[in-house]
Design a protein that fits this description.
Strand content: over 45%
Structural class: mainly beta
Helix content: under 10%
Order of helices and strands: HEEEEEEEEEEEEHEEEEHEEEEEEEEE
Distance between the termini: 30 Å
Number of strands: 25
Radius of gyration: 21 Å
Amino acid sequence: MIKSKVLAASAALSLACGFAFADSEFSFWNKISSNIVDITKEGSADSKNEFSGIRNKSVFEFSSDKLDAGIELVFWSTKRDGTDEKEVFVLGHPEDSPAGYDFGDTFLEVRPFDFLGFEFHEKMWLAGSYFPMWDDNVTAGNMGSDFGAVIRPLEGLKIGAGLDFLSVFNDSKYKPVVNFGGEWANDAFALGAAVRNVADNEASETNSADGISFGVYGSLLKVEGLVLNAGFGYNATVEPNVTKVGGSSVAGNLATLTGTYEKDAFHTALEFATNFGNSKEKKYDFYIAATAGYNVIEPLSVDCAVAAALDTESESEKKVDNRFQVNPSVTYTIGNHELKAGVSVYFGEDFSRVNFPVYWKYSF
């Protein structure tokens, strides 16, 4: 996977620089962030203070009639085995990995014809699978692959299919991991479906997919200022921060609902996911989060978010401890620069954690 993504990144750079398109667009943004320090207390033990590390993410994107390309580069500080607990910088994705050399969500799509394109490492998310506060998607909402084809037979209709590289070349024990899906979208709504790992392979060292997964998701865009997303995913997962702090996720057959609303200086968002208590593993059954904010003056926004991860399991040995989060924050925007600072408080039974998330993002 690492080599293939490096090749995709090189191809994206070469093609973007080697071809000139009249209607091409370039964009770049960089975000450096940190939670400063994690102050954690569990049970009767003394509180524990740890530097939470620094993360830097750079994203370059190129778009034209015949080519779309994106390169993501992520650095973060972390503690690795063999470093005597010193903070070191490594290159990779995702951020939870102790080490790794990867280029994140780097992708490339080449369109030799208006109706036909070929994609490399492209995550083609269904619009209705997006969680605006978490800023990520339900796993079952991705119809992209390491390599695939995208057909656009009609305006607003996209159909994609492909396979994951390593399932073909590096793992003879499993059948190729094949993914496909389609979505119809216009100014009023979007509706799509995706199927992943059609051959129903189990997870392995070279295959992250664990069984077949599919999702159906829709978006309502008709009301000015309002976006509503809803759907259902079989063998799906969501893993926002409040579930990570609890050491788990919401997984299984998930119903999801998210929404955002903006009017004048006011803005709000809601996220909800549940497996209806049917998970057979130590997973959360419910995730719910909400945020509300107000632009006090044009460049300054004051917000407060709350979230909860809940497990309804009655047997203590199978239960994941419930976790709650409160996160007030302030965001200041000036030109192409955005600065944000806040306090994030997590708590549950015999557990509490406080950190201080900040970031600086600039773009052009």
